[in-house]
Amino acid sequence: MSDDWIMGKDNKQIQLFFIPHAGGSSTSFARLIDLLDERIEVIPLEYAGRGTRNKEKFITDYDVFLKDVAHQIMEKRKEELPFAVFGYSLGSSITYDLLSRHILEDYPVHIFLCARGSILYRSISQDYGKLTMEELADKLASRGDVDQRIVKNKRFLSIYMKPIHYDFIIWEQFKFLPGTIDCDASIIYSREDPVSEGVQDWSKIVTRKVHYHEFTGNHLFITKHWQEFADIVNKALEAWL
Q1: What are the pLDDT digits (tens) for 71-104?
Q2: What is d(CA 234, CA 40) in angstroms, rounded to the nearest whole number?
Q3: Which end of the chain is least crowded, N or C, by CB within 10 Å?
Q4: Cα torsion angle, 87, 89, 91, 92, sign
């Protein structure tokens, strides 16, 4: 048996699935992916209705949305490799449900939960799905998620905000069901991001080692810290490389 079979095709030694934030796509983490160890097989997921799936209809039912994400992961899983999951904001909540409900057929060795505070209680932002696109844009602009220039460009606004609006309809339906995550976790947050409020509550959910990494910046603080994020991921997965 060759070493190539043990490590997987192209000498990849672990898979890493990226689950985007509201309005995100498979290209949202491109700059981060370029900085990761080449032995990590990176698989960015795509929500229906955008990116490579832009001809598909947006999903409006949470359970269907969750199953769609799970299907993407299991479709690309390689049984001979361990895997990890990286969720950003909405992606972190999705990661919790995938693992606590045991929806996936196997379990990750590590997870990265970013820009998401406590999920034990309903968030104010879960009511944003009821807003018009203009109102939602104003809300997100006020916390630094959307550039003010986009808010002022009415013609471009509806195109830009459409996937975000649908993802907030999904986020509105998220309900915390008590459960646990049984693998090590890296929690990455910004002390200036209101969405990160209650971030220490992840220690009540994750039963194994939890490492917290604090940054500064608005909700999309990752865009200012690509290298630091890459260093966190590479170090956390070092044992499998």
Answers
A1: 999 999 999 999 999 999 999 999 999 999 999 9
A2: 9
A3: N
A4: positive
If you search the block for the tokens 């290209």, which residue do you land on? 27
Sign of CA dihedral 144, 148, 149, 153: positive
In 39-148 the beta strands, taken as DSSP E runs, fall at: 40-44, 83-88, 110-114
Phi, psi dihedrals of residue 84, rounded to the nearest 5°: -130, 165
Amino acid of residue 86: F
Q: In 3-state terms, what secondary structure has residue 35?
A: coil
Query: In degrees to the nearest 10, what's the CA dihedral of 202, 70, 127, 120?
Result: -20
Length of the chain counted residue by residue: 241
Instruction: Tell me the pairing of strands 40-44 and 14-19.
Output: parallel
Q: Return the axis-axis angle of helices 154-172 and 133-142, rounded to nearest 10°.
A: 80
Residue 34 phi, psi (nearest 5): -65, -20
CB neighbours (10 Å) of residue 110? 23
pLDDT digits (tens, 9 = 90+) for 107-124: 999 999 999 999 999 999
**Arch. (CATH architecture) of 3-120+179-240:** 3-Layer(aba) Sandwich (3.40)
Contacts of 69-77 with CB under 8 Å at 24 or more apart are: 69/19, 69/45, 69/94, 69/98, 70/98, 70/103, 70/104, 72/17, 72/45, 72/46, 73/17, 73/43, 73/45, 73/98, 73/104, 74/104, 74/105, 76/15, 76/17, 76/43, 77/15, 77/105, 77/106
